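Priority: medium. Attachment 1 of 2:
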């Protein structure tokens, strides 16, 4: 048996410089190379008559050279090799740029196969820079060729060569990774054949079979690993919160009535909290659906049961806002709440940390600052992470580790399609708020180009004169608390503010917020905006998540085509939070990409976060939310969550069936599966 873990340097043709180039592609071992899958394929297998070729197509022709090969030096650095070829049906010009060496391989009167892209020049077809073969000695044509994703310093040819040699190394010696009975039951191709066919397909049908098998394995292992994590968690002994502490005590005193969906979610949480298994729940709800109040009521239950709560939010603005809302609702019950940010003054920080350890604080709200080592709770019972898509799994678990199996609630407005969420967050239970509070008006969305600028500005004036407030978001700044921010981005915000204040709206009060601004200043600006003293707030995407100012009714997004769909939806969610009709105006560049235009269209057509998520998946394959780094979700080498949705569903039931039959995979027949999953779990822990 061959060792897939051996260094990729042992593959023929892979010398030291290729090793380092491969390493940058995350290819370190023989196994990595074999699973460095092609992005697409060039079908060089079918030969066409010249009469039948079409402009723009990539095609193989078999034709005789009927002219001498001419070399023209057209510029100092540019030579053109030109010849004419013909078959029984027509003629075609062949040209090569800057490849004079080819002249020696092409002989007048001989027949070759050429593969390349056809263009039409005035009245004849031309093929530029084709690859070619002598008849009877086909190396470059006549087959389906893989095209690899990123190649860094490597040419496609050298990656192909390396993969080809890697396949030779394992030929006949590769151990099947899946149990035999699964291959049979689900009609799956063997591993060795699949790897061979995925890289160098003999035909497209075989390639599909290979892909099916590889996707099956990848998704199955992910699913089973998640099921296992969930099972482990359920075995842990958690906290039983006090049955005599009634959530309804708070619910009945709220200034509004909770929606049915909110009540249902609270009931699910209440059950989890009272049970002795640690809660591990994902709360999904579209922007503005009222998730904060859910966390407030849950924290009440924890505190009145004698435990502390931690609430973690991704930005200082959001943490501060939560702090105020929590105080408003919970202070009347004698609950002690504090705020801890990266920017909190050392003296105050020290005091908070001391009180927390002594149990003199009931609820601590904050940013990543909560994760700091010296932040120690006396008796942490409930952990809430808001806008969890901004945190990695590790951060989520790091905060939970500050308690002894505390209950965990993660909240997100990230609209992940339900089916997908159930599967991808297999280790979490899911609650969904699928209803907005009553009397919300639909936000009107318009995508506009530069030509509409004056009309947009007049529209802003009209809204301000009616007493409303405006957000303007300019692109490209990610707030990362405590990290260096790009100076250029900062400049962009300041410039936008200047333009809005001086050139367009001198009569109104315009201010800006951005990530790197001092927390005190930021708080002050947000306070002023909340109190209605600022008419137009220019900002970076720091206001993307969670910010709640019901009087703001217009969201302007500059360069909207540069944002992802999910982010646009989040931004739009900043308005339409009160009783006023609200608007979202997306300014985009009429020359933007096709995908950019699609996004504008989607935003205008729907307000439904789940529809948008589906569209996002479709436009980006995996969708921006599924990037591993942000989520700690599994990274897929071959599966594509959009294309492979049906497969994902069937694999999920396979996983459940296997687990039901052989919990823990102890049976001999599942030994291989056990290995794959252990490997996977090891990887995700070492991330
Ligand atoms: P999100 O789910 O986006 O975090 P928030 O929790 O910020 O939404 O809630 C948005 C706004 O709706 C807040 O002003 C909140 O007080 C209000 N709200 C929440 N639930 C209700 C409800 N049932 N009825 C009326 N307003 C509500
Ligand atoms: Mg929120």
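Attachment 2 of 2:
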């Amino acid at each position: 048996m061959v060792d897939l873990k051996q260094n990729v340097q042992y593959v023929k043709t892979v010398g030291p410089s290729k090793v380092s180039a491969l390493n940058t592609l995350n290819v370190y071992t023989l196994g990595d190379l074999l699973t460095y899958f092609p992005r697409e394929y060039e079908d060089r297998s079918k030969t066409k008559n010249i009469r039948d070729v079409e402009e723009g197509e990539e095609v193989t022709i078999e034709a005789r050279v009927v002219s001498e090969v001419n070399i023209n030096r057209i510029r100092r650095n540019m030579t053109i090799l030109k010849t004419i070829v013909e078959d029984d049906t027509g003629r075609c010009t062949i040209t090569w740029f800057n490849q004079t060496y080819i002249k020696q391989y092409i002989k007048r009167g001989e027949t070759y196969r050429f593969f390349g892209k056809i263009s039409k020049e005035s009245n004849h077809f031309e093929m530029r820079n084709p690859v070619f073969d002598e008849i009877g000695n086909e190396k470059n044509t006549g087959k389906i060729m893989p095209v690899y994703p990123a190649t860094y310093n490597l040419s496609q040819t050298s990656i192909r060569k390396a993969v080809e040699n890697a396949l030779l190394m394992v030929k006949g010696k590769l151990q099947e990774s899946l149990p035999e009975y699964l291959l049979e039951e689900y009609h799956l191709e063997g591993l060795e054949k699949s790897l061979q066919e995925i890289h160098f397909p003999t035909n497209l049908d075989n390639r599909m079979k290979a892909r099916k098998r590889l996707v099956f394995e990848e998704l199955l292992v992910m699913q089973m690993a998640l099921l296992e994590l969930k099972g482990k968690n359920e075995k842990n002994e958690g906290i039983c919160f006090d049955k005599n502490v009634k959530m309804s005590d708070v619910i009945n005193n709220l200034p509004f009535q909770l929606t049915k969906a909110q009540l249902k979610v609270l009931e699910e949480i209440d059950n989890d909290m009272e049970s002795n298994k640690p809660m591990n729940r994902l709360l999904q709800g579209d922007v503005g659906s009222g998730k904060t109040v859910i966390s407030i009521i849950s924290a009440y239950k924890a505190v009145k049961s004698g435990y502390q709560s931690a609430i973690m939010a991704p930005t200082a603005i959001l943490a501060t806002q939560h702090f105020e809302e929590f105080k408003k609702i919970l202070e009347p019950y004698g609950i002690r709440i504090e705020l801890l940010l990266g920017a909190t003054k050392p003296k105050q920080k020290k005091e908070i940390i001391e009180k927390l350890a002594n149990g003199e604080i009931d609820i601590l709200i904050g940013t990543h600052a909560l994760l700091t080592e010296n932040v120690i709770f006396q008796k942490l019972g409930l952990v809430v992470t808001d806008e969890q898509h901004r945190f990695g799994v590790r951060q989520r678990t790091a905060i939970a580790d500050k308690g002894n199996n505390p209950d965990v609630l993660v909240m997100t407005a990230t609209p992940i399609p339900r089916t997908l969420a159930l599967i991808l967050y297999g280790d979490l239970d899911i609650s969904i708020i699928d209803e907005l509070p009553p009397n919300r008006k639909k936000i009107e969305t318009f995508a506009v180009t530069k030509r509409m600028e004056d009309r947009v500005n007049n529209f802003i004036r009209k809204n301000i004169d009616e007493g409303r407030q405006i957000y303007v978001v300019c692109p490209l700044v990610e707030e990362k608390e405590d990290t260096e921010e790009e100076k250029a981005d900062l400049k962009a915000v300041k410039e936008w503010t200047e333009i809005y204040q001086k050139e367009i709206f001198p009569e109104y009060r315009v201010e800006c917020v951005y990530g790197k601004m001092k927390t005190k200043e930021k708080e002050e600006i947000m306070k002023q905006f909340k109190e209605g003293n600022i008419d137009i707030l220019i900002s970076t995407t720091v206001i993307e998540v969670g910010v709640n100012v019901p009087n703001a009714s217009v969201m302007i997004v500059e360069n909207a085509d540069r944002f992802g769909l999910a982010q646009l939806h989040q931004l739009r969610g900043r308005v339409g939070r009160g009783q006023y009709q609200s608007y979202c105006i997306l300014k985009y560049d009429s020359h933007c990409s096709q995908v950019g235009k699609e996004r504008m269209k989607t935003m205008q057509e729907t307000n439904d976060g789940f529809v948008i998520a589906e569209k996002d998946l479709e436009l980006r394959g995996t969708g921006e939310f599924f990037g591993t780094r942000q989520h700690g979700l599994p990274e897929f080498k071959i599966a594509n969550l959009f294309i492979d949705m049906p497969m994902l569903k069937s694999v999920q039931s396979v996983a459940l069936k296997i687990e039901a039959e052989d919990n823990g995979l102890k049976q001999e027949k599942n030994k291989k599966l056990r290995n794959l999953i252990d490997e996977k779990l090891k990887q995700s822990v070492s991330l």
